[in-house]
From TrEMBL:
<dbReference type="InterPro" id="IPR002347">
    <property type="entry name" value="SDR_fam"/>
</dbReference>
<dbReference type="InterPro" id="IPR020904">
    <property type="entry name" value="Sc_DH/Rdtase_CS"/>
</dbReference>
<dbReference type="InterPro" id="IPR036291">
    <property type="entry name" value="NAD(P)-bd_dom_sf"/>
</dbReference>
<protein>
    <submittedName>
        <fullName>SDR family NAD(P)-dependent oxidoreductase</fullName>
        <ecNumber>1.1.1.-</ecNumber>
    </submittedName>
</protein>
<keyword id="KW-0560">Oxidoreductase</keyword>
<dbReference type="Pfam" id="PF13561">
    <property type="entry name" value="adh_short_C2"/>
</dbReference>
<comment type="similarity">
    <text>Belongs to the short-chain dehydrogenases/reductases (SDR) family.</text>
</comment>
<dbReference type="GO" id="GO:0016491">
    <property type="term" value="F:oxidoreductase activity"/>
</dbReference>
Length: 255
């Protein structure tokens, strides 16, 4: 298998802003061509697309919670790029739902949404991408965006923590299954990092406490997470297949 270090065809799900945008930018700067996926934020996704260096990038939209639309997204990406070499499963939802404050009806709905988007969409896109990579015969990479919360617990976001733990487990199962085809699968488990979505929390009363979670006294950046994703998708990272890479500034240590 001869996966190149650059010039690859990359699908990044949930790339309209935040980490997804940073990941798309990192691959584009590496000389890869990127399919920028969005669910509902078409205008933000166009901003992401226009921010990419190089040429040959494409925009693909669809609700990944719908299996048929997930398949359509993969078809559009593969058609626009001429195939798929790398999949980054970044799309996710994260709604606050602490059990003591959440009605049963809301609890059921939130859990269903998290499972459909965070876990099932990741599984479905991984299947679709891997089958394309197998047909191409050139190997590939799948990188999943997990979370520190899968290990330390998420009392206010339990469905998020649980589905991210499942994403980690999925990645390890696929790493074993797909290795004979030259496809490496890995996950990153970021701690708190700055994006537009969490800016009000960092700027508000809890901001200092969040920064103090790390002995570095700060939160991470989307660019730091994206750099790790780019490396895990590189030819040099094949032997890291199956890994779950902690990216949390020593805010949560495990062995």
């Amino acid at each position: 298998m001869n996966l190149p270090a650059t010039g690859r065809r990359v699908l990044v799900s949930g790339a309209s802003r935040g980490l997804g945008r940073a990941v798309a930018q990192a691959f584009a700067a590496n000389g890869d061509r990127v399919a920028v996926h969005f669910g509902s934020r078409a205008e933000d996704a166009r901003v992401s697309l226009e921010s990419l260096t190089g040429t040959g990038h494409v925009l693909v939209g669809g609700d990944l919670a719908n299996p048929a639309q997930a398949a359509a997204v993969m078809d559009m990406a593969a058609e626009g790029l001429g195939g798929i070499d790398v999949l980054v499963n970044n799309a996710a939802v994260n709604s606050r739902h602490p059990l003591p404050e959440t009605s049963y009806e809301e609890w059921v709905a939130v859990w269903r949404q998290h499972v459909e988007v965070n876990l099932l969409a990741t599984a479905n896109l991984s299947h679709l991408a891997a089958r394309l990579m197998i047909e191409q015969g050139t190997g590939g990479r799948i990188v999943n965006i997990g979370s520190r919360g899968a290990f330390r617990g998420e009392p206010d976001h339990p469905a998020y923590g649980a589905t991210k733990a499942a994403v980690h487990a999925l990645g390890q199962s696929l790493a074993v299954s797909l290795a004979p085809h030259g496809i490496a699968v890995a996950s990153v488990a970021p701690g708190f990092f700055a994006t537009e979505r969490v800016a009000p929390r960092l700027e508000g009363p809890e901001g200092e406490a969040i920064r103090e979670q790390s002995p570095f006294g700060r939160v991470g950046s989307a660019e730091e997470i994206a750099a790790a994703v780019l490396w895990l998708a590189s030819p040099a990272a094949e032997w890291s297949s199956g890994t779950i890479l902690d990216l949390n500034g020593a805010s949560y240590l495990r062995s």
